[in-house]
Specification:
Length: 207
């Protein structure tokens, strides 16, 4: 199996941490942004976005689908219909709402200047900050009586939800207003697999 990744990016990091945590035999192909945008890569991911998993003839893109595929049958995926739907609910919420907002701020504040891709799009940042202001209290209140997103056990959702964690000081968000989110971020940041995913991140996309 091969994972084509932009290792400094949020959606690739969640999978790198998962792969390290489960010690999966997955070859990580670290790409640059130019490689992700190439026609060559579009053959496996027509969106020209990372990550993409190639498992024999099976090609899978969308990081959360890849995470569920890789963690399938491990303790990081809950069993039972309702628990699985709870997982899906939070994975959708993470991708569509929460980290969509944080990812936009991350891109505008960290990636764009680093790649020299022109001036910050302040309209986008303002909208993303408004969205973050809407969704952070939801997460903070959810985490008030839980260690992790699905309860007291680590799951793949935690790697997905925490993907902006390394950049929390650079996102112009007052995270201290959300102490449960801060503690959750700290808990995930303390995992050896998370640290390993960070250490291995090259500088192609993020510091
Ligand atoms: N919903 C997709 C989003 C993928 C995505 O936005 N990838 C970004 C990095 S986090 C990317 O490849 N950006 C490169 C570009 O925009 O050229 C997923 O979860 O896999």
């Amino acid at each position: 199996m091969k994972l084509y990744a932009l290792p400094g990016s949020l959606n690739s990091r969640k999978l790198l941490a998962l792969i390290h945590h489960l010690a999966l035999q997955v070859e990580i192909v670290a790409m640059t942004v130019e490689q992700v945008q190439s026609d060559h890569y579009a053959a496996i991911n027509p969106n020209r976005l990372a990550p993409t998993l190639v498992d024999g003839d099976f090609i899978l893109w969308e990081s959360n689908a890849i995470g569920v595929y890789l963690a399938h049958e491990s303790a990081l995926i809950p069993t039972g219909l309702q628990a699985r739907m709870d997982m899906l609910r939070w994975l959708h919420w993470e991708g569509i709402h929460f980290n969509k907002a944080l990812g936009t701020i991350f891109f505008e504040a960290v990636v764009r200047p680093q790649l020299g891709w022109g001036a910050t799009n302040q309209t986008l940042v303002d909208d993303a900050l408004q969205q973050a202001g809407r969704y952070l209290p939801v997460l903070d209140s959810h985490l008030a009586n839980r260690l992790f997103i699905l309860g007291d056990r680590l799951s793949f959702v935690d790697f997905a939800m925490a993907s902006a964690e390394p950049y929390r000081d650079r996102l112009s968000i007052e995270f201290d207003r959300f102490p449960n989110v801060q503690r959750f971020y700290d808990r995930v940041a303390a995992l050896p697999a998370w640290q390993k995913a960070l250490r291995k991140a090259p500088v192609a996309v993020a510091a």
